[in-house]
Amino acid sequence: MKQITKECWEGSFPKTNVVWLIYLVDIVLQKKYEACNSTDERELRSFKKRLSSCGSARDCLADPIFRDLLLEEENVRPSAMPPL
């Protein structure tokens, strides 16, 4: 983080969010969850490698791992949205 911010913590540094995402993926991989099979682990390790090339968390959303989780605006109708 210090390399990214150059110890100037007042600024905006979107790359630091990517560093946190890499950290979270590491935690998931270390915990060895029962629901996480070898295919899932392999996919997470691959995702972690791809994260390092992202400049911000927004860039990370373009990763194929999120393909089925995110909807494009034009495909979302208000009636299809769950109530808050």
UniProtKB/TrEMBL annotation:
Residues 1-66 form the Serine/threonine-protein kinase haspin C-terminal domain. One of its GO terms (molecular function) is histone H3T3 kinase activity. The keyword Transferase applies. SMART domains: DUF3635. The keyword Cell cycle does not apply. GO terms for biological process: intracellular signal transduction; mitotic cell cycle. Keywords: ATP-binding, Kinase, Nucleotide-binding, Serine/threonine-protein kinase, Transferase. It catalyses: L-threonyl-[protein] + ATP = O-phospho-L-threonyl-[protein] + ADP + H(+); L-seryl-[protein] + ATP = O-phospho-L-seryl-[protein] + ADP + H(+). InterPro entries: GSG2_C. GO terms for cellular component: cytoplasm; nucleus. Its EC number is 2.7.11.1. This is non-specific serine/threonine protein kinase.
